[in-house]
Amino acid sequence: MAKVVLAMSGGVDSSVAAHLLLEAGHDVVGVFMRHGEASAQACKIEGASPGLTLPVVTVGDSSGARADHKQGCCSASDAADARRVAAKMNIPFYSLDLQSDFRRIVDYFVDEYISGRTPNPCVKCNHWIKFGRLFDFAEGVDAEFVATGHYARMISNPLTGEAELHRGLDGNKDQSYALFGIERQRLKRMLLPVGDYDKPTIRRIAGEIGLNVAAKKDSQEICFVTQGHHSDFVKAKRGPGAESTAGDFVTVDGRVVGQHNGYEAFTIGQRKGLGIALGEPHFVVSIDPDSRRVVLGSKESLMRRGLVAKEINGLTDAGLRCGDSFPCLVQIRYNSDAEPATITVESGDRFVVHFDNPQAGVAPGQAAVIYDETRVIGGGWIDRSLTDADF
After folding, report:
1. Does CATH place domain 243-301 in 2.30.30.280?
2. Is 223 a catalytic residue?
């Protein structure tokens, strides 16, 4: 029916996506994107495939290297899994070296933590790379569509024919939050074939068609942090001569209760891994990069009535124009529920969220994604939280 470029990660979701696209009659081209931090794994460029301008990269073996050592976002074993699936389905397969593009993600990740914010590199990667460079590749091979294994759905509006982004049917796996930043004009060229299924069904299909990745575990780590804690990665990237980020733990009333080795190790709402015992549960309430203080408090002190978000990306004709104000649902973290709220758009690049009920852990740097039931209206990036006194 159409030529489709499919991002293949070597996991079960994108592998079954390839099967579903073929079942629908599409001409599928598999693409593995290596865009992480270089590791000890050896890579070599075999040259360009005919008609393509992007390099084809093949992962080679490195004697003595750990089998599980990541080549950034995707390990050598992931590349091999993706290649085997493509061979089994008899579809073309290309491996793209996008490490230079991905340095932008790494720089953003480090800069946000040093600014006392909590980055979301997966959302940025979807916007900048997966649905950025992947579309560039699609243009190079005259493909009409780009597809991934995300658990979200593309639905055509029955009245207008407009392509809409919706939540996936599996509420436990829904990934629509991470796709809000995609450019609106690209929605009509996106396919998300696994979004109409739940995860158990996807694994069952993989087993029925004999895929070796049917029982493969889902990736949970930050893709480019190949080992250790993310704060170790941030420190390493800044280098030994960087200014210290160590400082004090203080309570909301200003009492110093301990010291930390670097505020980049913490995020708003964090309770575990503080490395300090105060006799009762305490949470990270705020982070001040200027004083290097990490402020701790009770669950009640975390509650916020709203937030200000910037860098608006709208995915619909209406609803995010300056002066608009409307009720909706807003999700402020990847693994949280969308909560009832009222949105007021104050400018073309800024909106205010007023929650019906106070929310805990509103973290600057995270995405605030706006829903109308299951449809993604758009969203922005949290700049600051608001208390009752701000309304």
Report:
1. yes
2. yes
